[in-house]
Amino acid sequence: MNQEIKKLNLQAEKYSKQLNKILNEVKGIIVGQEEILDKLVISLIADGHILLEGVPGLAKTLMIKTISDTLSSKFNRIQFTPDLLPADIIGTKIYDHKNSSFSTKKGPIFTNFILADEINRAPPKVQSALLEAMQERQVTIQGDTFQLNKPFLVLATQNPIETEGTYKLPEAQVDRFMFKLIIDYPKREEEKEIIRRNTQGKEFKTNKVLGPEDIIRIQRFNRQIYADEKIEDYVSSIVDSTRNPKRYNLEFDGHIDYGASPRASIWLILAGKAHALLQGRGYVMPEDIKAVANDVLRHRILLSYEAEAEEITSDEIIKKIIEKIKVP
């Protein structure tokens, strides 16, 4: 086993250097938000999607477009609005009068990177069209099924401030996102750098680092990274404690209505592996799980009315769980 882990470590170090080159290129364009950028790359390695919550103007579009540019990949931005139709995302069939036949017009979903901007502004039928494509990695247009491109990453954003004219994402659909990330304002010094970059007429360009086929190779390798049975026990205990807190001497006083789903366990392991890979390791440590726990669990723990009334957040509950569950 030691020999096998050595081989995994060597390969992980090689891929880690390539991934950090991507991060360095992106950080040359984006000021601050380093933790968010790291999580974007982790989700790409683990082949998962992201729900990003934050106020407008925090460079969400620029982040995903810049990563796409460094990977020589295709990028589409979809602005979700109340009048959007599922066909506007997945495509439709158009009748050609000259040939007396139907031809398929593919929608913007057929790309590598998608920014679904303000996903909660579109009706549920449109949301489900995107989320089905995310889950199945394929689209059916009037009876014909088409596979989506690889790699395929959706970054969906929602504005936490405005609720007028929005449609809340159903919990079952939110569960399909690997991460829910919270993006905050830049620090004061970062703000000054943002001002300089955007008011002095300088152009910042990224270099191509990898291609889509390289990312697919890294995604396959990510699943080979070694996670010991003790790590699996640790993850299952964390997830189980959200459903049965008393079993772990956690007193949440009815603050949780529903615990995390089995998808949480799967993504904790895959995201933990991706975090280890980014560090150049071929095996998972408890620290890797801790590093991604909040982002995997915060949208999967459904809080009770009492918790919301007391202004208790899921992040606070996750913190208590991580402190309580015994580390292997």
Note the main attributes of this structure.
328 residues; 5-stranded parallel β-sheet; alpha/beta; 2 domains; 13 helices; Rossmann fold; single chain
CATH topology name of the largest domain, in short, is Rossmann fold
Tell me the structural class.
Answer: alpha/beta
Annotated CATH homologous superfamily of the largest domain: P-loop containing nucleotide triphosphate hydrolases
Instruction: Please summarize the sheet with the most strands.
Output: 5 strands, parallel
Low-confidence stretches: none
Radius of gyration: 21 Å
Q: Provide the succession of SSEs.
A: HHEHEHEEEHEEEHEHHHEHHEHH
Overall number of domains: 2
CATH architecture of the largest domain: 3-Layer(aba) Sandwich
Give a count of the beta strands, DSSP E runs of length 2 or more: 11
Strand percentage: 5-15%
State the CATH class of the largest domain.
Alpha Beta
How do the strands line up in the largest sheet? 2-5-8-1-9
CA(first)-CA(last) distance:
19 Å
- Helical content band: 40-55%
Gross morphology is: globular
- Tally the helices: 13
Mean pLDDT: 88
Structure description:
This protein is α/β, with parallel strands linked by helices. The chain has 2 domains: 48-200, Rossmann fold (3-Layer(aba) Sandwich); 225-324, Magnesium chelatase subunit I, C-Terminal domain (Helicase, Ruva Protein, domain 3), CATH 1.10.8.80. The chain has 13 helices and 11 strands. The strands form 4 sheets. Strands 2-5-8-1-9 form a 5-stranded parallel sheet. A hairpin with a 4-residue loop joins strand 3 (91-96) and strand 4. Helix 11 (286-297) packs antiparallel against helix 13 (314-324). The radius of gyration is 21 Å and the shape is globular. The chain starts with a helix and ends with a helix. The mean pLDDT is 88.
